[in-house]
Amino acid sequence: MAATQKPAPKKSSGFQGVRNAFWIIAAMFVVAVCIFKFVLGNPANFVGNDPEGEVLNGNMLGTIYKGGIVVPVLITLMLTVLCLSIERLLAQKTAFGKMSTTKFVVAIKAALAKNDFVEAENLCNKQRGTIANVVGASLKAYKEVEGLQNVKKAQKIAKIQQAHEEAVQLEMPTLQMNMPILATLVTLGTLTALFGTVTGMIKSFAALASGGGGDSVALSTGISEALINTALGILTSWLAVVSYNFFSNRIDKLTYALDEVGYTIAQTYEANHDEA
Q: What is the largest CA-CA distance in the chain?
């Protein structure tokens, strides 16, 4: 019986990203609850070792704990932003390949200018990653259309461009994976902070309505809850905005580089071949 042929290894081998971000969110929620209960809610942070009592003077951990039940939710969102940022950084590092995108594009264009397709393929094998896969698919299409007979040059160029576009569409999901979640966290952090602010103000006004000096602790607790949730939510949204824009910009740069190389390959074929 003939031996089964092993498939060729993928050029984009490496970390491809986490396909189910739900597990990241779930894990971060568990971590956030533990931080809230055992770190922020440590009895040593409060007067008389009582988490329900007053916070020790100047103790920031205890002050954050007084933010209430919304705090672990905000910590979950913040940790999720950090984890997804690391996940996207590692995944895009794999996608971008070994050498810088700019150097790779310049080297490919130089090889194509000399009609040295062997060198171009060697560069793709060394580069690996998304851009190398797309360029490799375009070069493969280039070779295939050269062997076609009775086909107009415009149709051959269209086949090269189609192969390029199909390769881009196959690679883009890896680059854009989990980006919608980061975009959602930008708004979700602000809305959750607003919710915590409102609940804190409700407690404050309830303390004012009841009257009496004994309610001063409840009043300060409500105001503290409102301000802490606002601060945590703003910080979470700030991190999410920076992360989302950073990775979106990297994707845009890679997309531009892919379009540039794809156009160069098509133009090279047009320049090197006469009309059929």
A: 95
